[in-house]
Amino acid sequence: MLKSLFNHRLCVAVRTAAAAVLFFTASATASAQKFPGLGDTPQMGWSTWNKFQGNINEDIIKGIADAMVSSGLRDAGYTYINIDDCWHGERDADGFIQCDPERFPSGMKALADYVHSKGLKLGIYSDAGTETCAGEPGSLGHEYQDALQYARWGIDYLKYDWCNTEQNYVTQKCAYTLISEALHAAGRPIFLSMCEWGSSMPWKWAREVGNSWRTTPDIWCSFDSLRVFPTYTQYSVMDCIHANDSLRIYAGKGHWNDPDMLECGNGMTINEDRAHFSMWCMMASPLILGNDIRSMSDEVKAILTNAEAIAINQDTLGVQCLKFGEESGLYIYFKPLAGGDWALCFLNPTKNDVTYAINWQHFNLTDEEVSGMSTAFDKNTYTIYNVWTHKKEGKTSKADKVAKKIKVPSHDAVMYRLVCQNSK
């Protein structure tokens, strides 16, 4: 009890001290209110970290912005270009953070202007601790200054990490609420992507604080193998799915579960890339690319720009998929969609191809947790549209019989949009 009271009082003290900085720099009033309209659907974009990590500069960012346009990614819905760790320079005499003058000689405002000229938005990275994960200056004690600086630069997105926070003496909830208030006070709508790896179960408290929150440790480019280091562990695609697919009741418009960035195009097989992308679309996860889009293959590009898959991710109903069960080695997921449609995904995590016989009556279900929608295959008829082959594959049957056989290759997924004929 005493520890809880101490943390509460210290949290208030830190927030009060930080607010004093803004008193002399801006007239906005601090508020926990989020900016309306940000993240009504899961965010889509690209980030430096998975491919480049700390080896970044303004030429790379400009080249990515150009490629976002020429590749069709921008038109497919990818909006944000996010600069992760290692962009930082020093703080000036007044405590305002600057960008690295060698890596970003034109300055962050000029880079934001360039990205905006392409019809895109620029994201940036910081940390709630004394230093970022790579040892750059953190935002602890400078939250309102940093938020104001980002607004002056024209930043649109902030990924906020949780490294080197031992000296915070406050909880994740306090620290992330503080930066949320600071962003709102600075006055520019900036998407807040919280990254504390799910350690404080932010899905239970951060709905009014951030626009998305990490539910997992960092991902790495593997379909099903953990990567273990002395002090931390990186998750595979399947590990991220297992950690995230049970949290659907917490996701929705403006507040999304985030199982980390995409590894498509970074070295997995094309089957694994397709399964990875399918499940991020089904789980209403942020679609933040992590490959070098300037040199991606046509196969990878076809996955990342698949309009039907993206439409499932960006569906306006805003509901994360539910796991129906595991059968014949397959994981089976349903996702309710606006207008009475459903998405259906068969994920094969095994090392063997699986042939599966679909009995539509076996899948009569009601999503009592979130949407209240029912598949009602005994009453409704659906057109079966294969998202990856772009072909119609008949209609569902109201009869209690096996209507369709499918083959799901190893480490791959078959994804359908079931278009309800009763409501069309």
CATH class membership of the largest domain: Alpha Beta
Strand order of the largest sheet: 11-8-7-6-5-2-1-12
Which residues sit in consecutive blocks of at least 5 with pLDDT less than 50?
Answer: 1-10, 12-31
Shape: elongated
Could you tell me the mean pLDDT?
92
Structural class: alpha/beta
Q: Report the end-to-end length measured between terminal Cα atoms.
A: 58 Å
CATH architectural group of the largest domain: Alpha-Beta Barrel
Radius of gyration: 22 Å
How much strand content do the residues show? 15-25%
Number of domains: 2
Please give a structural write-up.
By secondary structure, the protein is α/β, with parallel strands linked by helices. It has two domains: 2-313, Aldolase class I (TIM Barrel); 322-423, Sandwich (Immunoglobulin-like), CATH 2.60.40. Helix content is 27%, strand content 22%. The chain has eleven helices and 20 strands. It has helices at residues 2-23, 49-52, 58-70, 73-76, 108-117, 143-153, 172-186, 237-244, 270-282, 298-304, 307-313, and strands at 44-47, 80-82, 88-91, 97-99, 121-127, 157-161, 191-194, 212-214, 227-228, 233-234, 256-258, 287-289, 322-327, 330-336, 342-348, 354-359, 382-386, 391-395, 402-408, 412-420. The strands form five sheets. It has an eight-stranded parallel beta sheet with strand order 11-8-7-6-5-2-1-12. A six-stranded antiparallel beta sheet has the order 13-14-15-20-17-18, with helices on one face. A two-stranded antiparallel sheet has the order 3-4. A hairpin with a 2-residue loop joins β13 and β14. The relative contact order is 0.11. Residues 1-10 and 12-31 have low confidence and may be disordered.
